[in-house]
Amino acid sequence: MNEAMLKELGVVRDQIDSIDAQLLALLNERARCAEHVGEIKSRYGEAGHVYRPEREAQVLRRIQDLNQGPLPNESVTFFFREVMSACLSLENPLGIAFLGPLGTFSESAAVKHFGHAARLVPQTTIDDVFREVEAGHAQYGVVPVENSTEGAVGRTLDLLLGSPLKICGEVVLRIHQHLMSRETSLGAITKVYSHAQSLAQCHEWLNRSLPGVPRISVGSNAEAARLASVEPGAAAIAGEAASERYELPRLVENIEDEPNNTTRFFVLGRHDAGPSGADKTSLIMSATNRPGAVHLLLAPLAAAGVSMSRLESRPARAALWEYVFYVDIEGHRDEPAVKTALAALAAEAAYLKILGSYPQAVY
Ligand SMILES: C=C(O[C@@H]1C=C(C(=O)O)C=C[C@H]1O)C(=O)O
């Protein structure tokens, strides 16, 4: 290397070393503050509420407002989430149940929301995630609720109806599907494993690029990657987490048919969140089976000036041809307009259950 260049590099590297030392000192100073907050909470009998989703959302939104680059918001948000995760785990790492196995998009969602310091506990089914949190074996649970191309996850919606758990957060994850295999060319691929939903999300790509190659649906994308990692000729469609877990090279990246493919997850806990300033409230309601019933249910929202961000109907199991509605509205249940709308809904609906208020996902 050129001596002048080495000299210049040396100056900048000294600067970086000095900044790193300052960052380290500041990170530990911040960690001590978070410990202090934890100590105050336990002194006031709030030891069980150490994790505060609304406060974390506010911290991240503020960081994004302050950020002037060159680092993009996505990167600084990632760092600060990890910092909060590490600070929180100094006291007691959070136990997070999620729909496993490791290597699924649910794992990525849990890590995106709670950071790498959380203790992730994979579960076999969505039912098990609910049970683990209800039984207190895990403090929080992460379950998929809807995909932008495939629609609602029915099992999650059905379980929310009967569960005492509250929604205390949402995570929105961009879903990128990759074709991964030990084979090095498409021509060598004789079968493709994946979860049925992922096969559906890559249906057109598969018709075009691997016509006639059998598609085999298995329990999860991670299981598909595991199979493809040991079977010659096999490929899997799965996400980055699975390719890393099974050290399976990605042959073709981003093969999802819909470029804006996202999945939304709910974070479940035994309490919901306080107001963060930009919140949502999820509820389930049902109307008696008469003309105009749905309109009567939705009118109170409009009257109070509350926006609805999602409406999903599911058949009620109890009575044939009756429906329950899953509604997401903007705002926190403690805000006056939302309070007014909820009171009017309670008077109108045959059944109303408030699933929780929580901060809108921070991207
Ligand atoms: C430190 C606190 O507790 C936790 C840690 C946070 C953090 O590290 O910034 C934020 C919210 C809580 O999950 C707090 O409530 O301020």
TrEMBL record:
* Reported function: Catalyzes the Claisen rearrangement of chorismate to prephenate and the decarboxylation/dehydration of prephenate to phenylpyruvate.
- On the tree of life, the source organism's domain of life is Bacteria
**Protein name, entry field:** Bifunctional chorismate mutase/prephenate dehydratase
Q: Record's Gene Ontology CC terms? A: cytoplasm
Where is it localised? Cytoplasm
E.C. number(s) listed in UniProt? 4.2.1.51, 5.4.99.5
Report the principal subcellular site. cytoplasm
Organism in which the protein naturally occurs? Zoogloea ramigera
What are the Chorismate mutase domain coordinates in residue numbering? Answer: 3-95
